[in-house]
Amino acid sequence: MNVEDCIMTDQPLPLQRRTIIHLMLVNNYLGEQMVQALKPFEVSLQQFNVLRILRGQKGKPANLSTLNDRMVSKMSNTTRLVDKLIAKGLVLRNTCPENRRKVEIRLTGKGMESLKAMDRAMDAAEKKLMGCFTDHELKQLNNLLDRV
Amino acid sequence: MNVEDCIMTDQPLPLQRRTIIHLMLVNNYLGEQMVQALKPFEVSLQQFNVLRILRGQKGKPANLSTLNDRMVSKMSNTTRLVDKLIAKGLVLRNTCPENRRKVEIRLTGKGMESLKAMDRAMDAAEKKLMGCFTDHELKQLNNLLDRV
DNA sequence: ATACAACATTTGTATATACAAATATAATAG
DNA sequence: CTATTATATTTGTATATACAAATGTTGTAT
Description:
Two copies of one chain form a homodimer.
Chain A: H1 3-6, H2 15-38, H3 45-56, H4 64-70, H5 78-87, E1 91-95, E2 103-107, H6 109-130, H7 135-146
Antiparallel strand pairs in A: 1-2
Chain B binds a DNA duplex through helix 5.
């Protein structure tokens, strides 16, 4: 992915700026590819993220703020995101009996099944997108990113 | 920026997945910081990007498809983005006399002045965000990103 | 010249996101 | 026990984005 080609510029970019733009371009591309991989399942990347977090709870329900904490892209609007998943029958929401301010969200059977299918698509996408790197390079990249 | 802390997980992530998430987290952070830097000028990152592209034209007007080609995040909706900039008095739009399908967009004096002020804010943000890297590391990072 | 395809932009519409304010519940201080 | 503050979620609203269809213009083949 060449920066200058992507944004069709001829003038050279300062290194710091080029790096930021590079990160953004790569990220846009990764996002697009993953959204595409999820298209057949009619869920957004954010919705997929929530489903995966719920599975990580291993049966223990999550409340909204837990979801928000664990999401890759935090958003103010997790309520409405969960609304969508409920409408699709993938999750359930009940008010928490111990603390009626909170809410308990959990995967349905259908949610768990759908998620398994999505996993296969996403694992393939991951492999396709990151397959260009050796393990050593992945570690190197992660180390660099840790510094930000 | 530690991935596991950001998404508050204890279970270890496969390296490829971790890298993708890492890139997304870094990108979210970079975006937030740059949006913040632009807040005082009341323009979005996309709008700033268009202004900078227009300056790169060195007086030669740009049409919509040129803008779209050169934007970091391409969008279907450059028309409305330009509408906003016109409303702020930062750019002008005329239909191109040689080809009346096309449109000629150029910076106004006010646009050029505002852009200079934004530059200072954005240069500072760039330095702050990328200051954690040496030149060698920046090159290394760029080389890795080129592979995607 | 006329019809048809290609091009450049604009518009419509549905969905997504950001941010602030509102609601409901629980915890705490007096 | 009441008022106040803090917590958790929901709602309102404005703005942004994605995608498809519509509009207006130009180029081309007959």
